[in-house]
């Protein structure tokens, strides 16, 4: 077989492997077969595109938008809660999408989703009861949940965020 045809076939097999059209074992076998046992330099194609970056940016912007709607708007409480739940649903959709895509190693979308859920729960508990101990207890429960989720998923970033939250909340309560 001509070298240029082999090179085209090898590049196709590499693209199949990167796009996961075939299992990597099969691709490795085909690469070894067509390269006749020689090593292949697989070029990893960047998985970043503008749509993913725009979705990530919009997901990140949901956190300050949630904070702004809760604290700096003069609209009714019902509309505030509705907007906050819309933002929460948008963040949840971004989390589901990014968990399928495996876009980033750090789970930004999960951390943003959990921070929005923290803001929402603080707002709702504060709306129901103004007792600081109930709000602090709820925050501790959420931070412990984050740490347990981080340990279960073997995610050191999530565990660290939960630990930092607990430490900061403890310093806030002490002072």
UniProtKB/TrEMBL annotation:
Superkingdom, natural source: Bacteria
Residues that span the membrane, as ranges: 52-72, 78-95, 107-126, 132-150, 157-174
Alphabetized UniProt keyword annotations: Membrane, Transmembrane, Transmembrane helix
Protein name (Swiss-Prot/TrEMBL): Uncharacterized protein
Source species: Sediminibacillus albus
């Amino acid at each position: 077989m001509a070298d240029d045809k082999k090179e085209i076939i090898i590049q196709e097999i590499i693209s199949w492997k990167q796009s996961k059209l075939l299992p990597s074992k099969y691709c490795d076998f085909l690469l070894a077969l067509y390269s006749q046992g020689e090593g292949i330099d697989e070029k990893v194609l960047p998985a970043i595109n503008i749509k993913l970056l725009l979705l990530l940016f919009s997901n990140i912007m949901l956190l300050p938008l949630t904070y702004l709607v809760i604290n700096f708007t003069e609209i009714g409480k019902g509309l505030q809660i509705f907007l906050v739940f819309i933002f929460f649903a948008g963040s949840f959709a971004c989390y589901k999408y990014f968990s399928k895509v495996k876009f980033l190693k750090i789970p930004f979308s999960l951390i943003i989703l959990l921070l929005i859920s923290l803001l929402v729960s603080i707002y709702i508990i504060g709306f129901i009861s103004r007792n600081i101990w109930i709000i602090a207890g709820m925050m501790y429960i959420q931070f412990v949940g984050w740490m347990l989720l981080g340990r279960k998923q073997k995610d050191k970033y999530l565990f660290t965020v939960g630990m930092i939250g607990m430490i900061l909340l403890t310093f806030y309560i002490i002072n």
